[in-house]
Amino acid sequence: MRIVTSIKEGQEELGIVINDRFYRCSAIDQTLPKNMSDFLKGGEKAMSKLQEFERALVRGTIERPYHPLQETQLIAPVPYPASFRDAYAFRQHVETSRRNRGLEMIPEFDKFPVFYFSNHQAIQGPGPIHCMPLHLDQLDFELEIAIVINKPGINIPAAKADEYIAGFMILNDFSARKLQMEEMKLSLGPAKGKDFATAIGPWLVTKDELEPYKIQPAEGHIGNCYDLDMTCKVNGRQVSAGNFASMHWTFAEIIERVSYGVQIFPGDVIGSGTVGTGCFLELNGTALIANPNHKDQWLNLGDEIELEITALGKLSNSIALHHS
Hints:
21% of the residues lie in helices and 31% in strands. It is of the alpha+beta class.
C-alpha cells in the first residue's frame, strides 16, 4: 500500500495511491484517520483497516471517488514527524568518505549503529527546496531510505524491531557542506549544515509491498533486508547508484540502538544514512584521488534532483532561492 499526504487549498489530507488514482481517506470511509499522525498513532489496527479498504478498491468490490494522481499535489507523506534521526549505516559510504580524507576506517563502525538528531520541523516532500545563500556553498544531496514508527516501545530487541516499522520512504538529506565542515571542526553537529531541509516521499510504502524483494541479512546481523536499487539523477544525468541490500546495519538493529533506555513513538522517522556513492561529497573526493585536476560538482539554483528506489518510487526536488 502507498500512503500519501496531499494538499489542496491549504487543506492536508491523508490518502492512498492505487495505480494513477488518489483516494482520500475521508472519501473511502469516515472512520479512517484524516492525517498521517493519527494514522500512525492508530498502529496495526489503523494499518489493517486501511489495507482492507485498499484491497477492496483494487478488487473492485467497492467504488469510491478519486482524483487523478497527476492532478494531486503531494507533500511529505509524514509532514510532521515526532522526531527525525539519521543513521550512518552504509559501510561503503563511511569507508570511502574517510579514505578520501586520508583517514583509516573507524573500528567503532562495526560495534554499534550510530545516528544523530536532525530538524523534524524542516521535513519537505516533492518540489522546490528553498535555500539561503550560505546553503548554496557546496550544496549536496544524500540518497537514503527512511522508515517511520507506528508502535511505541522501549528497549526493543532487534529480533522484534521490524514490527515497529509502518513503512519505508525515499529520503534526501540535503546538506550544506561548507557550513557542515566549519561547524563540525568544533566537534558538534551537524546542525546548520543539515537543519534547513530534508525531503521524504513521494509516499509511504508498507512492508507487505517489499516482500518480493526480501533477502537474508548479512551474516551476524538481524532484521529484514531488501534488494532495492537506489539511484540519483541531477538534471537528467545519473550521478549515483547503490543498493539497499548493502546497508551494513539493518533498520531493526538501528531501532534496537535508538530505543535503548529511550521510548520511541509513532511518527518517529529514522533515516538509513547515505548509500555508497550517494552524495557529491563522496563522489568528488573519489574523483579527486583519481584525477588531481577534477572539478568538484555541487547542486546549484535551478537543478533538478531525482532519487529513485525500486518499489519506493521517485522523489523529485529542485533547488530554489529562499525569499525571506
